[in-house]
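JOB MANIFEST
job_type = single_chain_structure
chain_count = 1
residues = 136
[input]
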Amino acid sequence: MKRRDFITLTVAALVAPLAAKAAVFDYAPGLVKEALAKGDTVFLDFKASWCSTCARQERVINALKAENPAYVASITFVNVDWDQYGRHEFTKSLNIPRRSTLVVLKGDAELGRIVAGTGQAEIKALLDTALAASQA
């Protein structure tokens, strides 16, 4: 085996577990319940494609995930389409008041929530809460 092939395969083997966890899921009924039952920490992003506040939150979240790969490796991210699920029983059960709401769940507990906030510091604090819970 050539050294270049060996290095490529080694890097791929190390990154593969992170890539598997790195996916951002689109909400479907039962998805969050299943993730929580597995012990995952879930970061919910209630958003709409036309929402400028949601777009700003997404840019901040993506920048923070790029800065700290541990977020991607440890947290299950779920996007909830407000237009499709805004009046859904799942959304009502969490008392989500509007799109641009970010929520962190672990087990049966809500660990944090931001409604319409776009500040990097507050979103980082919520991500740090999720990260700490995922490692507990």
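[summary]
The CA atoms of residues 52 and 115 lie 14 Å apart.
Residues 11-21 have pLDDT under 50 and may be disordered.
exit_status = 0
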